[in-house]
Design a protein that fits this description.
alpha+beta, 20% helix, DUF960, DUF960 domain-containing protein
């Protein structure tokens, strides 16, 4: 079994994410995983982040299926209704990718 979301592994963002979110928000997801989540709770290989409008600023709301732990992290970035409402961080064991819900392949 591999350690999920190891910061030493390759990290990517999908085309959909890169075209719909500023780099600062993409980087913030990795920072949240590394600084706020890793070591606090056991992480699955897929994490969910909702982007919430908090008085014109972004709040990143974390959750994962099967866990009662949820967390909202207020960020200093302006919110846009053009942002996706939800993104996923996925770790396949060799690389980690931030994806939009419609970019996840169903098997």
């Amino acid at each position: 079994m591999f350690e999920t979301f190891d910061s030493k592994k390759s990290r990517y963002a999908s085309v959909g994410v890169v075209s719909s979110l500023p780099g600062e928000l993409i980087d913030s997801i990795w920072y949240i995983i590394d600084l706020d989540l890793k070591g606090l709770i056991p992480l699955d290989n897929i994490l969910s982040f909702d982007l919430v409008n908090n008085d014109g600023r972004v709040t990143m709301h974390f959750s994962q299926e099967g866990s009662e732990v949820e967390m909202g992290i207020d960020l200093p970035f302006g919110y846009s209704y053009d942002f996706p409402q939800e993104v996923y961080a996925y770790d396949d064991g060799s690389r980690q990718t931030i994806l939009l819900p419609n970019e996840i392949r169903q098997r």
